Amino acid sequence: MPASASDPYDLAVIGAGCAGLAGAVAAAGHGLSVALLDASPQTGGQFYRHPAPALGAARPEALHHDWPAFAALRRRLERSDVRQLSGHHVWAVTKEDGDLWAVHAATGADGADERPVRVRARAVLLATGAYERQLPFPGWTLPGVVGAGGAQAMLKSGLVLPGRRIVVAGSGPLLLAVASSLAAAGAQVPAVIEASGYQGYARHPRVLAANPRKLAEAAVHGAALLRHRVRLRTRSAVTEVHGTDRVSAVTVTRLDRDWRPVRGTGRRIACDALAVGHGLVPQIELATALGCATRTTADGTLALALDGLQETSVRGLWAAGETGGVGGAELARAEGELAGLAAAVRLHGHPVHGGRVRELRRRRDRMRAFAEAMAVSHAPAAGWTGWLTDDTDVCRCEEVTAGRIREAVTDLGARDAHTVKLLTRAGMGWCQGRMCGTAAACLAAGGGAAEPPAERRPFAVPVPLSALASPDEPTGSRPDAAPPVDD
Amino acid sequence: MARTPAELAGAHPGASFEITMDGRPVPALPGQSVAAALWSAGILAWRTTRTTGRPRGAFCGIGQCYDCLATINGEPNRRACLVPARPGDVITTQEGHGHARIGV
Ligand code: FES
């Protein structure tokens, strides 16, 4: 902790998931003063999201994979001097006079408290994770259709399910994890519908052999699905949801290699909920607002371009975990530690034990290779737009339909998501395009290669007007004055 | 084999309390968000959209999609998936925009 309350921290870590926790404890372990900010009341991020203490869960680990890894990080955090700032919704990072960073946060359970906070630090580690990528289909706005990650998040934190009989659909390895936890928690899961095949993995035998833990994890989920009699249907998608005020069934259709629905193959499955998602999108707007360089990942999202020690193209700003490309919890831990060590070397000039850095880099490269192979195998192919009807909502917030977006493209000449947005308001609502960005970009490309959406937003989270009116009030340069956080 | 999430996690929560959804009493457990309490009562929608008046509830579950906006104790545009339920909370269906209170 800084010597006096008005001193800046050495390092501000944004996000208390796997990457942020590992980074914070590594940096603190090497003598840095560290502030760890997170929007949630508890540490763990999305992967280790768990019930509030008041729910009295004696076995939170039953909902998780590899809980001991998290428990160990949490113990190290408790023993460290890291200043934990929970309930802090970071909406911007800016440069202050001199070489200091200012991290601006709204406070409270949903960021609605009146007191904004500013935390100053000499370096920043972004560990903001990812959110779920969604592709629209007819009926996907009906109550009972929830994100696959959303269903899992609500289960892990609130011990609730959206229904009794839940179809899981979309693409990517998360679906298997979601289906097995829903089933373990008592839901009936008639089927997991995966748009890709799993053959893609076979093209990377060396990468698979180098990552036995990942294969074991897949086997655990596979066995759970068998035990719960969950059927896995590959190369298929939910192409329609039925029901008037809520889900009563879905139609599942076979897809060709390009994800185009094959006519006449639709089959109805009765269910009262659908959990759906098509992979994850790195959450990087705090960095893109500062001009950090990005790269397009193997499955067509934007991630931060990082150097060998996790630094972004902006000096003093590090990133770890999903912000550098989606790769899972174990990779996030390795990258977080690497970034924390790199920041310690830079700020204190301490030589860090080189052997540890080399080992972390080796592990990171091995797991990154696996993540790339996985991303290629589940990347959405362009034919998915074949299941949209003209009146399918693409933008959930502004209720902009596929028909209106196609009109903007064919009649008005829009060629990219940005122009589509200006012409139709798709992506201009509450979520700022997080839910429709990928779809709008695909439709704008009109069958050609879609540019990933820019992941640029004026604010990373909505800000109470009161906070904008007085952004420079020194509320948070003294972090000890941070308001207490509800939990 | 577990039949409920609470059984799976070995949960022994404190005594449940009451909130209301459009006047209907709904039980909530300490530590649950407003959205979680509504889900456990089988309520999946608590907002109608601005343009077409369609029902919506929680979708992303993590504060990103804003589909779960609710009017909580008279305050519109609260994200029900993030706000913890408190005894006596009055939740009402949010119609359209509520009134804008947030700058983006
Ligand atoms: S469910 Fe998405 S913001 Fe609450």
Main attributes of the structure:
heterodimer; A: FAD/NAD(P)-binding domain; FAD/NAD(P)-binding domain; Arc Repressor Mutant, subunit A; seven-stranded mixed beta sheet; five-stranded parallel beta sheet; B: 104 residues; mainly beta; Ubiquitin-like (UB roll); five-stranded mixed beta sheet; three-stranded mixed beta sheet; 2 helices; globular
Q: How would you sum up this structure, described in words?
A:
- The complex is a heterodimer of chains A (487) and B (104).
- Chain A is of the alpha/beta class.
- Chain A is 31% helix and 20% strand.
- The termini of chain B are far apart.
- With 104 residues, chain B is mainly β.
- In chain B, the strands form 2 sheets. In chain B, strands 2-1-7-5-6 form a 5-stranded mixed sheet, covered by helices on one side.
- Chain B contains 2 helices and 8 strands; from the N terminus they run H-E-E-H-E-E-E-E-E-E.
- Chain B has helices at residues 5-8, 34-40; strands spanning 17-21, 24-28, 47-48, 55-56, 69-72, 75-79, 90-92, 94-95.
- Chain B has one domain (15-90): Beta-grasp domain (Ubiquitin-like (UB roll), Roll).
- Residues 100-104 of chain B have low confidence and may be disordered.
- Chains A and B meet through strand 8, helix 3 and helix 14 of A and helix 1, helix 2, strand 4 and strand 6 of B.
- Residues 58-61, 63-68, 79, 81 of chain B line the site of FE2/S2 (inorganic) cluster (FES).
Question: Concise description?
Answer:
Chain A is α/β, with parallel strands linked by helices. Chain A is built from 14 helices and 21 strands. Chain A folds into three domains: 195 residues, FAD/NAD(P)-binding domain (3-Layer(bba) Sandwich); 145 residues, FAD/NAD(P)-binding domain, CATH 3.50.50.60; 74 residues, Arc Repressor Mutant, subunit A (Orthogonal Bundle).
